Amino acid sequence: MAVQPRNNRVIACLLAAAILAGGAAAEAGSSKGESPGTGRIEVLKLSGTFREMGRQYGASRKALLRDFLADMKKLFVTEKGMSQEGLYRYARGLYETYPQRFKEILIGMSETSGMPLDDHMFINAFEHFLFHPDLAGGACAGIAAWGPAASGGGLVFGRNYDFGADVSAFNRYIGMTVFDPAGSGIPTAMITYAGTLNATTLMNSAGIFLELNNGGASASGLSFMNRMSAPVGLLAIMLDSSSIQQVDREMNTLNTGHAYIINVADAGGAVSYEWAPFGLKKITGDGGVLVSTNHFVGDWGFAPSTDAFFLTVTRRNNLKHLAEGAGGKINVEKMKGILNTAIRDGGATSYKVETINGHPSPFTAYQVIAEPGSRRLWIRIPGWQDWTAYDPGK
């Protein structure tokens, strides 16, 4: 969930989701050992120029953004002893990698929130800061089912957005933002933390779903600091792509500074891009199932991956086993059950930071299920919001 720190340290996964507008209806979904919670993420619809969308954001979320800023400083500066000056310097460096249209969003926020642009840069870097060694790491998981593996044949995509630390104190800052740039893009929604452009789970109005997983230790930790931040590049791809074929062209054009796994789906199927600083490989599904966690599975010539990185092999194998056990009947309800299954019970979800079989487990911050064919999705934040459905146009 976030982006790699600018110090050659391999970081965690990033991610967020969906296009749709507001209306939603809570739906049942069992969650082993977890109370359903009473929280509810907010949906913010923005339109106009990129500056205008930023101004709308700043005006409507000013109180939440002030609280978020205070809580970030409490964690990173007061509790963890990180240098506030160094954090602001890093945040400015991240901002400078952004294309101008995305800078305009943060500039617009600063014009209406009552907070200076430097504070918005700081907030925008939230997930990047989480990869400090004291908080280190992150993971993610994605599983898609369609055709022979899905009930009715329609594609269903499930994803876990995981960190290496318990970030539940920040649950209230998770939200969905829908960007509808005037005359210059395809309406695209993302789920992420307030005031950030860390675009790691996305769906657009053309029915394309995209999510990012950390590449873990793949690519031997190689990184380049002179490239655009990958997550904001993914937001650009989704704003510009009306087909999965166009996403493929964009992925084959854009470079990354760090190793990631990008999963992309539409109503007809899903593919996974193993995205290294020195190349790209496309991984297709097997029998209508695509699963990825945090290691490359393509023929790169690397040493075999192990569970040392947040149980990445076990989590992938567990998801494949659960998909096989569904017997070709995966639908939204089946996917809820798969994502609700804890690692210790044969799944990929973790409700606390712990060690399993001698390896660190991730912490599942939030979960998303998408049906690109209907532009519908469900969001769950363990312990805060149970599975809640969001429908297009409502």
What this model shows, in words?
The protein is α+β, with helices and mostly antiparallel strands. The strands form three sheets. Strands 2-5-6-7-8-9-10-11 form an eight-stranded mixed β-sheet, with helices on one face. The protein folds into two domains: 24-40 and 137-390, Penicillin V Acylase, Chain A; 48-129, no CATH class. The protein has helices spanning 50-60, 62-79, 84-96, 100-113, 117-124, 126-129, 230-240, 244-251, 312-325, 332-339, and strands spanning 24-26, 42-48, 138-145, 156-163, 174-181, 188-193, 201-204, 209-214, 260-266, 269-276, 279-284, 289-292, 355-356, 359-360, 363-371, 376-381, 385-390. α3 packs across α5 (117-124). Helices cover 28% and strands 25% of the residues. Mean pLDDT is 88; it is low at 1-37. 53% of the residues are buried.
Main attributes of the structure:
394 residues; globular; single chain; 7-stranded antiparallel sheet; 10 helices; 8-stranded mixed sheet; Penicillin V Acylase, Chain A
Mean pLDDT, to the nearest integer, reads 88
**3D shape:** globular
How many domains, as an integer? 2
What is the CATH first-level class name of the largest domain?
Answer: Alpha Beta
Write the layout of secondary structure elements.
Elements: E1 24-26, E2 42-48, H1 50-60, H2 62-79, H3 84-96, H4 100-113, H5 117-124, H6 126-129, E3 138-145, E4 156-163, E5 174-181, E6 188-193, E7 201-204, E8 209-214, H7 230-240, H8 244-251, E9 260-266, E10 269-276, E11 279-284, E12 289-292, H9 312-325, H10 332-339, E13 355-356, E14 359-360, E15 363-371, E16 376-381, E17 385-390
Parallel strand pairs: 2-5
Antiparallel strand pairs: 1-17, 3-4, 3-12, 4-15, 5-6, 6-7, 7-8, 8-9, 9-10, 10-11, 13-14, 15-16, 16-17
Helix pairs in contact: 1-4, 3-5, 4-5
